[in-house]
C-alpha cells in the first residue's frame, strides 16, 4: 500500500508542472470572460435608466475592483466588521444583494437578520448567499423593523435613500432594538457638487459634520470619518449610547 501511495505521489509530482500550467491559463481565461460579462451587466443595469435600487456586488468582485482599483466595496464591509464582536446578533437594514452579510459579517455573527424592501434583492440574496446564520426578510423599514434586540445594527449605503423625517422614525426604531452597548454602523456617500448621485437618494449629507449632528440627536457617542476617491467622497459612522471599546484599540498608548 505504501508503495502504491508513493508511486501515485511521484506521478503527481512528475505531472504537476504541466497540469498547473493548464489550470493557471484556464483560470486566467475564465477571469477575463467573467470580467467581460460582469462589465456588460454593469452597463445594462446602470448606463440606462431606470437603475436598480440595489447593486449586485458580484460586479465589484469580478470586474470593477480590478478595473478601477477602487476598494470601496470591500472597505464598507471591513469597516462595519470592526464594530462586530464574536457571536454578535446583527440586524442589517437595507441589505441589498446580501453580499456583505455573507462575506464580512457572518464570520463573527451568531445570527444575522438582513432585510430589504425590494423583493428582487431578497430573492438574489436568498439564492446566492445561503447561510444557517443569515435570515433574509422582505421588510420596509419606514413601516417597521424586525422585533428583537441586537448587538449591532448595520445600515450600509442606504441612509441616503430616506428623507430626514423618515430617518428620525427609523432611528427611534433602531434605539428600541439595540442592546445597551449596541452599535449602529454604516456608510453613505457625501453629496457631490453636481447634486445627488442617484435618482432615488432623498437626502445626501453635505459633510461629516452634518451626519454627525444628525446621529448626535439619538446617540451619545458618535464617530464619523471619511475616505475619498476620484469619483466619490465616502462617509462612515459608528454610533452608540455607551463608549465603543473597539475604538480604544486604535488610540496610541
Descriptive report:
The structure is a single chain. The chain is α/β, with parallel strands linked by helices and 253 residues long. The protein has one domain: 3-Layer(aba) Sandwich (Rossmann fold). The chain is built from eight helices and seven strands, in the order αααβαβαββαβαββα. Strands 3-2-1-4-5-7-6 form a seven-stranded mixed β-sheet, with helices on both faces. α6 links the parallel β4 and β5. The model has no long low-confidence stretch (mean pLDDT 93).
Observed structural traits:
alpha/beta; globular; 7 strands; Rossmann fold; 7-stranded mixed sheet; 253 residues; 43% helix
Shape: globular
**How far apart are the termini?**
59 Å
Fraction in beta strands: 15-25%
Helix content: 40-55%
Summed up, the domain count is 1
Mean pLDDT rating: 93
The main sheet comes to: 7 strands, mixed
Output the radius of gyration.
Answer: 22 Å
- Based on the coordinates given, report the CATH architecture: 3-Layer(aba) Sandwich
How would you sum up this structure in a few lines?
This protein is α/β, with parallel strands linked by helices. The chain is 43% helix and 22% strand.
Give a topology summary:
Layout: H1 2-46, H2 58-68, H3 72-81, E1 88-93, H4 99-105, E2 109-116, H5 119-128, E3 134-138, E4 150-156, H6 164-177, E5 178-189, H7 208-216, E6 221-229, E7 232-240, H8 245-248
Parallel strand pairs: 1-2, 1-4, 2-3, 4-5
Antiparallel strand pairs: 5-7, 6-7
Helix pairs in contact: 1-2, 3-4
